[in-house]
Amino acid sequence: MVSGKSDYDVKLPFFGLPKLWPYVRGYRGWILFNVVCATLASLIDSVYPLFNRYAINHFAALHTTDTLPQFIALFVAIVLIQIILNFVSTYFCGKVEMEVDRDLRNLSFEHLQRMSFSYYNQNNVGYIHARVISDTGKIGEMIAWRMLDTVWMGSYLFFIIVVMLRIDLQLALYVLTVVPAAVLLITLFQRRLVVLNRRIREINGRITGNFNEGITGARSIKALVIEDRINDGFTAETANMERTSVRTARISALFTAAVTTMSSLTLAIVMYKGGWMSLEGIMEIGTLSVFMNYAINMIQPIQGLVMTISAMIGIQVNIERFTRLVETEPGVTDTPEVTEKYGDIFHARTENWEELKGDIVFDDVTFQYPDGTEPVLEHFSLNVPYGTNVAIVGETGAGKSTLVNLVCRFYEPTEGRILLDGRDLRERSQLWLHRNIGYVLQTPHLFSGTVRDNLRYGSPDATDEEIREALRLVSAEEVLAKMPEGLDSEVGEDGGLLSTGEKQLFSFARAILADPRILILDEATASVDTLTEKKIQNAIDQVIQGRTSFVIAHRLSTIVNADVILLVHDGKIMEQGKHADLMRRKGMYYALYMRQYEDMLVDEVK
Amino acid sequence: MTQKTAFESRTSLILYFLEGSKKYFAMGILMTSLVSLVDFINPKIISYTVDTVLGTEPSSLPDRINAWLEGYGGPAFLRTHLLYIAAAVVLLGLTGALFRFGSQLFNVTGAEKLVKRMRDALFGHLLYLPYAWYAENHTGDIIQRSTSDVETVKMFLSEQLTSLFRTVLMLVLAVGFMLSINVSLTIVSCAFIPIIVGYSFFFHRHIGSTFEVADEEEARLSSITQENLTGVRVVRAFGREKEESIRFRAQNDKYTEMWIRLMKLLSAFWCTGDFFMNMQLLSVLALGSWLCAADRLTIGNFIAFLAYNSMLIWPVRSLGRVISGLSRAGVSIDRIRFIMNAPVEEDAPDALEDVPAGDIVFDHVSFRYREDGPWILEDISLTIKEGSTVGILGATGYGKTTLAALIDRMYELPPENGTITIGGTDIRDFKRSSLRRAVGFVLQEPYLFSRTLKENLLIAADDPDESSLAECVSTAALEETIQDFPEGYGTFVGERGVTLSGGQKQRTAIAQTLMKHSPVVIFDDALSAVDAATDAKIRAALKKNLNNTTKIFISHRLTTLMDADEIFVIQQGRIAEHGSHEQLLQQDGIYRRIYSLQSAQEAEW
Questions:
Q1: In total, how many domains does chain B have?
Q2: Helix (H) and strand (E) counts for chain A?
Q3: Which range of residues forms the domain containing residue B254?
Q4: Residue B353 falls within a domain, yes or no?
Q5: Residue in chain A lying closest to B302 (CA)
Q6: A125 φ, ψ to 5°?
Q7: DSSP B340-380
Q8: Do B377 and B297 belong to one domain?
Q9: Does A549 have pLDDT greater than 80?
Q10: Cβ separation of B86 and A272 shorter than 8 Å?
Q11: Do the domain assignments include residue B349?
């Protein structure tokens, strides 16, 4: 897992924009278009006070209404242009934002489909999920809105400065003396606020964590009678939150006060100098009013620009994480020759795919997990002819999945090779292999959708008849019969509307329906009721007929008939043989079996 | 700590939450009013300067101020001393800045105090809710209510309400000042207000549901991603990467299009708003110019009026959104009220503090979780002798845990369903905290807190001392595990720390409970993930070190229970048989069947 703290300190050249460029190039036309629109819009915004000036200097000062119709017509025309401009620029800006988001999301999602399992083991789902959903969103927002804001504010500032300089050079220069001071002041405040706001977010995260702990740990808290203690810890955290927030508020309030004072100062300069100029007859009243208007409105875009810069600094971390994700090489890749012949995951060339029989040979395999410190397999050889049932047993967390991971080519051996029907696994594509494998997980995973969608997951063309046949084979017809809409019933997110046992049965049926040559079963440890357990056991016996199969077993009673049993301890294969041999040896397998046997007996008494 | 009032209405809950922060909000509002007032004086200075100082018009300021100014030389003096006017502007600016500072600070302080009070109240309330409540409510939902709903209510009280107030105040002040300048201009200016507010209100009300739909589409996209990531093995094993990508793309497109459509609506809304605003400005400009031309308005006043007008326009534009957002807060308050109104565990005022030593007796105890549910326990009568070791044997899901949970009153036993006594006193007469302190309970799936191992071990200890900790750790066979961690006792565990195995967690929980030094300890399948050898080691240590403690072991593993003084076999919620290991072997019952089956099996090999 990547620690959250150091992530904030990412510093990239030019806010990481060059790194991002290859991914957003396609939008350069639209981005340019938005820049032009924003510039024009800000130009018009900076022109409005000139209408005030004309009204005052001409109509009010000269006591005439001669050009009023033209005045109104011009005003309306400008307003209409501006409205169209604003509409076009905000709409297209939003469109660019959403489309950049969409493309970055697609890119990262598709890249994740190729990413090796070691990546998934090193990063938890929440972390990866945030990369796909939130990083991309922040980047899109920056590309579109921050860009628009920066351009708008920058050019607005530029235009009003130009207008002021044009109208009256001297007064304009007086006003502009405020700008450097304002920039400096705002930058200092902003920097301090960014740090404090980050701290607030961290405390906030801890408070949410506390709620989580108080709620999921409720049973333990009550049993230990530590409600008061936990509560004290919580109130200390919320007090910390209040303190930090109020401190931050003090600074940000001071910030606001400073900014408004800046505006007043500018206004005072204009009134003092401009007033004098108008008394001297050098400046008209309307012009003075324009200056006053600009003086009040000048500080805001400066503030906006500084805030945008600090937002861009904040977004570097998202850019860094995103580019790191899409630039990480998948650990297991097919060679160009293999891809040439068999195709890749998005363009399979099924016409070149061979039939698979299912003879597997581990040939002097040594394997170490990419994040591991020592090999878990050393010079391991095993011959698994077609139709063999291999059982892998051991304590929870002993590393029973290793062999299965290698057979599925989720990982590749560090040394040695695995032969499938006499050929190295690496000589054929991953997709070809996976389409020939059926995998039933320990914690059955279903996707939201209907029962039919889920069962057809591995064989999209299966007919309802075939689906029902598969369900019958695993004795799950009753489960289906209970469901109100039959195959069209929704299973809910992650199969949430079904019980674990039901999910287990469906995932069996799903695997069978794909008619795989190699079957991998990771048995359920979750307590399913005896009846369901019996059904699952029967299903297993049915399904492994005529296929090469690997069963990762937690209940030894289910695998006594396996052709070969491998006992794994601390990641290594300690014992190997048939049930009777292993029992006679009175080693680890024997001990494990005896312990579970007791449990089983007790349960049988129910 | 806990508070006893049930909140019958939204208002009562809001008022309860506002306690302690009300005065800050009041001060914030006062300051905000002062800010507005100061802001409104500025244009007056400008108009006075333009008309009377720079021009020749008579002053439009109140007479009293004119008189005061005349005392210093009036406009003539100021004409040669413009710096004074600039100074007045800066001074006013500083005063305004001071009030702004105050208003923001008071408002945020109020908001933070409010949030603290809400969170503390919620968390405090949650902690003391009965365990049964947790079984009925989803964790994710409770957390949602405690975090985002709290945030919504905070926004409502500290921002939306205050901004509503500020806007109305601004409106009243601006209209007042504007009226003092020119009535017909004010009418033209204000004529647009209902249009702008109404338009914005209806738009937000209409678009609110579209936002919800967009949120749902996002949630769907998010869960497709989530499913793909958690099911990555299934996806790979079935070679369905392409189809998954197509599915993701389809939803991604749908979501994107939804938002682009929303953006179109929003852009149209903003632009139409701009149009109204500019039309209003144009009307004011045109009428003002005409009035000036007709000598019915001075230039200075015209400038001032334009300034008031521009101050008015933004708050008015946001008013519609604020009003339409109000209904959302109501829903959140109700969701929080749901938690705050759930009754907490409450002890009778005369509840007993001290739990005496003595036998634990179940007298015709029956129990079911719901009124209409099936009976979990039926007519259980048993006696657990003080200081003895008792085993409870039974299959998974057949009431063993419920039986134990009744002893420390995790579930309340209704009076008509029998009684449980300790030392002759009904456990319902004790204070719950005293009872639970006297009865230690080790769970099968214990929860470790996000702290160091040591803090976890000491979390329930009253007076933690090192020797006692060492003893408990040794009894729970945890020493080696701790030594194996590079950071030993300082190892951070729990949600954000290192992951302990099931057995390590269980042993930590045992040591944790032993640190309570309770006279009764229940081990609820607390050794299920521990291997057989360690299981035996822990039981031996418990026997030796906790000689006088009443120990209750719940298990479906025979060896764990074999050396208990008395074993109760629970079958379908009833006691099927009981006695010592030897006695049970004499009877021709379940226990013997299990035992002999096992021996026979062993002899076979």
A1: 2
A2: 25, 10
A3: 10-340
A4: no
A5: A56
A6: -55, -40
A7: HTSPPP---TT-BSPPPPS-EEEEEEEE-SSTTS--SEEEE
A8: no
A9: yes
A10: yes
A11: no
Q: Where a domain ends, among B277, B306, B340?
A: B340
Compare all CA atoms of chain B with the CA of A281 and give the residue at the minimum distance: B54
Is the distance from CB of A416 to CB of A378 less than 8 angstroms?
no
Last residue of a domain, one of B311, B340, B369: B340
- pLDDT attached to residue B396: 60
CB < 8 Å from A in window 301-340 of B:
302-303, 306
Q: 0.90 exceeded by the pTM?
A: no
Maximum average pLDDT range among A387-401, B204-218, B398-412: B398-412
Q: What is the mean pLDDT of chain A?
A: 85
Percent share of chain A, pLDDT over 70: 93
- Domain check: are B262 and B379 in the same one? no
State the pLDDT at residue B102: 93
Q: Residue A371: which of A45, A120, A179, A144 has the closest Cα?
A: A120
Is B441 part of the contact surface with chain A (CB cutoff 8 Å)? Answer: yes
Identify all chain B residues contacting A269, using CB atoms and an 8 Å cutoff: 86
Q: Phi/psi class of residue B340: alpha, beta or left (left: φ > 0; alpha: ψ in -120 to 50)?
A: alpha
What are the pLDDT digits (tens) for B331-378? 889 999 999 999 988 888 999 999 888 999 999 999 988 887 788 899
| Beta carbons of A249 and B50 less than 8 Å apart | no
CATH code of the domain covering residue B590: 3.40.50.300
- To the nearest whole Å, the CA of A93 is away from the closest chain B CA by 9
CA distance, residue B6 to nearest chain A CA (Å): 21
**Interface probe, candidates A91, A221, A602, chain B, greatest B C-beta count within 10 A:** A602
Alpha helix (H) ranges present in B231-240?
232-237
Flag whether pLDDT at A204 surpasses 80.
yes
pLDDT tens per residue, range A23-32: 989 999 998 9
Cα separation, B301 vs B306, in Å, equals 8
Do B307 and B367 belong together in one domain?
A: no
Q: Which of A90, A256, A272 sits opposite B100 (nearest CB)?
A: A256
Q: Is residue B426 part of a domain?
A: yes
Q: What is the SS3 assignment for A365-400?
A: EEECCCCCCCCCEEEEEEEECCCCEEEEECCCCCCC
Same domain, B292 and B406: no
> Residue B102 domain-assigned?
yes
Q: A47 to chain B, minimum CA–CA distance in Å?
A: 13
pLDDT of residue B384: 94
Distance, in Å, from the CA atom of A128 to the CA atom of A113, rounded to the nearest integer, reads 12
Give me the interface pTM, i.e. the ipTM. 0.82
**Dist CA B485 CA B504 (whole Å):** 12
Contact B232 A271 (CB under 8 A): no
What digits encode the pLDDT tens for the residues A512-538? Answer: 888 888 988 877 544 455 566 677 777
Tell me the per-residue pLDDT of A341-387, one tens digit each, with 9 for 90 and over. Answer: 898 888 888 888 888 888 999 999 999 888 777 788 888 888 999 99
Residues of B in contact with A605 (CB under 8 A): 395, 571, 590, 593-594
**Which CATH number fits the domain that encloses residue B307?**
1.20.1560.10
For residue A195, the tally of other CB atoms under 10 A from its CB is: 10
